[in-house]
Amino acid sequence: MRQTIGYIIILLCFPLIWLLYSYIHSETQTASEFKEDLKVAIPLNTPIITSPIVLLDKDNEIFSEDYVEWRDPLPLESIPLFVQEVLIQSEDVEFYNHIGFNFSAIFRAVFANAAANASDQGASTITQQLVRLRYLSTEKTYERKVTELVYAYEMEKHSNKEQILENYLNEIYFSNQVYGIGAAATYYFGKPLGELTEAQQVFISAIPNNPSVYNPLKNFEATKNRQELLIDILVKNDKISTEHGNGLKNEPIVLQTKTKTQLYPVYSTYVLDELKSLISTSEGFQEKIESASNEQQAQFFKNELQTRVNEVISQGLIVHTALDPHKQKEDVAYIDSLLHQTKDLQAASVVINNETREIVSMYGGKDYKKFDFNRANQAVRQPGSALKPLLVYGPVFETTSLTPNNEVSGGKLCIGDYCPQNYGGAVYGNVTLKQAFRFSHNTPAVRLLQTVGIEDAFAKLEQFQFDHLIEEDHTYPAALGGLTNGVTVLEMADAYTGFINGMYKPAHAIRKVTNKSGDILYEWKEEKIEVWSPKTVNIMRDLLADVVVNGTGKGLSMTAPYVGAKTGTTNDFYDYWVAGLSDTHTSAVWIGYDMPQNMKPIESKKIHHKIFNQIMN
To answer: Is 85 one of the annotated active-site residues of the chain?
Structure first.
């Protein structure tokens, strides 16, 4: 009787077997048609995966992290064997024996799905899961499943088991935009994988089976229950003892979830801008852009640069910077509080270390949020008289025999249709160059530019990093800071470093860029060059110091042995500037409105002086 029932069951299974054969035969034919084109259509190589970019301050402490997906890939030898065993036992116990797929598991799944009239049973090996992660969708259809088998078979031919397992462990999804077992350890427990207890390792290993259901931040108990199920599997398969398993189950699990570090947004925003410039300079893009024959070609090179930048960043970088976090925090808090007293007033500042020529702090605008418009390096404004030391007086002492005690007329002046006036329309007789500089007289500055010659004066200015100067700026109004476009706060602070000792090197925030292993990928290569002779430097430092004591810089008070500065005010009081240096730092400060308006009513508050005092002290 039992034998008869067996024959009947076998006969009843024939239609199902025939249906299965038809399905497999059809899909195998379809798969074979594109098998030859497989490598061309979708190469079985490692895809580009976006890894975090980490920014470190001067003390090598993390102050900013940028990532959409949190990843921390590890070589297989750094992944504990216990974790490897947990995932193999739970996901693919025959991993080291199959050719990419497991026929017996597939047949079990097909029969189960057929009986349930569904396609829920997966029977996917680790290789198949990796294939699906990289190349295929997650839809549950037999068509996709057959394609997955072909891909898995190809992957097994081109990679060994260790490579497949390493990639799988680094790419599987652990919920909350976390990918890879190493990243899961640092994200959920705040420690490297190797420092987790075995109970913690099994806990995070429970997540990938269904990241939505086993998201420990939302469904902790479900994750804990699956952890215990995995422990039972290890016990059942004689990988650990029952006592060991009970100990793992009883160990308390306390999450210490990682939060993205996002401190000092204006500085980190600038660093990412500078990173693009560093890559452009290091890999020859900047030279291509500057030598482009037309705008269309220049745009092509710019697009190439952006593609390259995205590629580099996606690999994961550690950017070492010169940020002084204590100073940055204090400067931003002070300036924010000061600006909140005047509606819509904005400001920008940059502070550079004299010895290293590195940017140690930056202010980009009131209540700045990451990737906002950065007024320190993006706002191009007229510099007013703050440009005179660079375009007029420095070149005068560098190229002529004039001294601060020589005289120049402060009277009325017209050069063609251009008739500049002194502040308030005042007319002076002969004044010394020192007096003209101290009180920022305008007509003497224009006369001195005539003496030097416009082209010779601009040749001195072009030693620095003024990116917005154009040929049309080569006119006499430039002596008073009248430019077509203008300058940025960073450009002004950078240029004033030439008065430290006559030697100049562009100021940067980035010290070096490394990969996770510490290999240096990029660093600035500029060498210092002499931009002012010792004679010119000594004279200019004396004149800048005199401004602070006796001239337009009164109110600038610091405890440093040396302080020198120059102020600037533009037409209609649209912009107020202070640029200068002490023994240790050089800086520039700008205040104004984004939509320019007259600031005469707040001139007496000397807000730009107060900011300069704060950031230079």
So the answer is: no
